[in-house]
Amino acid sequence: MWDRLAASDPGLLRLTAGLRTVTAIALTLAVLAALHVPVSQLVAGAIAAMVATFAIREKQRAQQAVTLAVGLPVALASVSLGALLNQRVVAGDLFFVVLIFCAVYGRRFGDRGTALGLIGFQVYFLSLFVGATASVLPELYGVICVAFACSAAARFVLLPQTPAGTLDRLRRAFRARLAQLLATQAELLDAGPEEAEKVLADLRTGTARLHETALLIQGRLEDGTSDPAVARLLQRRVADAEIAAERLGLLLLTARSAQRTDTLTLHLPGAPLPAGGELPVRDEATVALRRDLQALRLLMLRPAGEASGTALAQVRNRLLGYREEENLPPAAPAVQDVFRGLGEAARAALGLRLALDGPQDESDDTPATARSREELDAEDTAIEISEGSETEEPRPTGLKRPTTRAAVQVAVGSSLAIVGGELLSAQRWYWAVLTCWIVFLNTASTGEILVKGYRRLLGTVLGVVAGIGLAALVGHHTWTAFALVLLFIFAMFYTAPLSYTLMSFFVTAMLGLLYTLLNTYSLSVLVLRIEETALGAACGVIAAAVVLPVHTDRRTNELLVAVLDRLADVTRGAVDQLSGGAGGDLVEQARELDQALADLRAATQPLTHPITPLRSRRNTVRYVVALLETCAYHGRSLAATAELLPTHPSIAADPRLRGACGRIVHNIEAIAAHVTDPKSPARIETGSSIASMLEPGTLRTPRYGRVTDRVLRHLQRLDEAVSGLARPLGLAGGPAQPRK
């Protein structure tokens, strides 16, 4: 059960965020209740504790403490201005707009600027929500100070979270998700024709989740490790395990089909299992394959203290022997390839265990296992941190800067929301402003804002229905209502990264309970919340579409070009190193490619959302993103293979690969030029296959042939995927040009 929890919530980030926020609020309510403050101040303290906890996102504890300390005077100033300007309509509205602009503009100063902006805005909103006046300011000062103190206690004493601890939990989550993926791969081996498509969908989901966890680890390495060499080693081992697991899935798909499986099958949602797919014959080879898949999963899950003993050592030795053709069972070539893939995955698992848990018992090693350890030790020794200076890309200035543009947009949208909100209700107009503010958080294009506004409205409508029922049940039972508020706050933070609609549902249901506590609940109030939410979302969309707009097409094109540039860098660097040159930090380049692709995937959500009316366009976007994921997989694999070159005894440089790579890089650059400027004269080149461009002979001994063939397969598939990108993007091809 713990492994399942670790896999469903990598690093326990959502669980920790929810528990920490609930703990801070519960502490605040306990202290304020002991002081016998009125209910309105209890509500104010709960909101202040929530804001002080969730606003701070820095990873280092010292930085968190500084931000929390600076945030307290910001909160006191904000609640003071809210109370003083509450009765001055024009002045209060103008200041609110200025505050919103400053809060959004503060994002350019990093996590601390973002946190202080959130605290300033939310505490001003708090003063409007509880109807603060100048006469109650001293009491509110005390309430806010208690809330910040309780937030600090929850963060630093009761539920401390260090970067190293978070990274350790992320590593456990990676292991758990890797084990889940291996279990799904075993299911694919046994699935009948009726279950095969469902298992294939689960395989895609498991592969994507493993990749997501690897990216989370990448983002925590710098803060979670004390030594850059350790960070680089862990980065390398995680990448190796991810690539080995994905390759094993592809080999299993091929074993299930009549022909070699296209990599796109694993990345395109809805793509069927290749035609002719049949269950492998249930002979001794496939029985052994099922056994070894389960054994690999067991080795991956066992902690270091339990992964010892002769039996487990024999399992590990058998799996690693498959890498060197030892004890391969007589079977079809595709099934034997799966056994070789198991050997590669076992080696990646051994490297991951050595990186995470340190040296292991070597007394039961076979020669094959000893050679794997020697290879891993040689790779560890060869790891060096590049200290070359990085060239910073020019950053936009003025209104072109994203934070400045967003600040102007949200200020205009909030002004519209204030005017429209006050026409709907002179007392609760601020709900429209809050919605307008929220739809701009973590969005960068008009389409993203539209989808976020739609999700918030849907969650609000469902939350109003729930709020009506809860208000009737709870009545005026104060502590029962506060207990439900805490439950909903936990659910809000736990579900926020998964579903914005669910988060909005829990927020609205919680607000219904708060209105009940403040004796301001009525059906008309909750209906008004729906109206204000719809108005705020509409104002946000209008502002984004009219004021300094960033259209979704423009945003996705910019990110697509960034992905293509990173792909060209990885391909060029990997092939250069495989040809005998120096390719640079290829693992880091591969991770930059993965991050750029993740950004593109997030930006295309408005185009692939179920409510989009352009069905054919949605299918095209999904196809393009799937092709890019295929390209990224082959780029990662080439980079990982190239990084083995200096130390691996079975890999040698082949200068001919550099010429084979030229067409691929040219085509990537041609597509990027076409996306940037559709009138660009660039054309992709077509011609003979990559394998046929290399003359036979060199490196064709049995020991080297398999690795060389794998590199050629990755290059061939990458060439095919890049050429496939040109068609949906409207780029014509031309004959191949002679290359030296």
TrEMBL record:
UniProt-annotated location(s): Cell membrane
Key words, A-Z: Cell membrane, Membrane, Transmembrane, Transmembrane helix
Transmembrane segments: 12-33, 65-83, 89-106, 113-134, 140-159, 430-450, 457-475, 481-498, 505-527, 533-550
Residue ranges constituting the Integral membrane bound transporter domain according to the UniProt record: 417-542
Compositionally biased tracts (Acidic residues): 376-391
Organism: Streptomyces canarius
Family: Belongs to the YccS/YhfK family.
Membrane topology: Multi-pass membrane protein
Protein name as annotated: Membrane protein
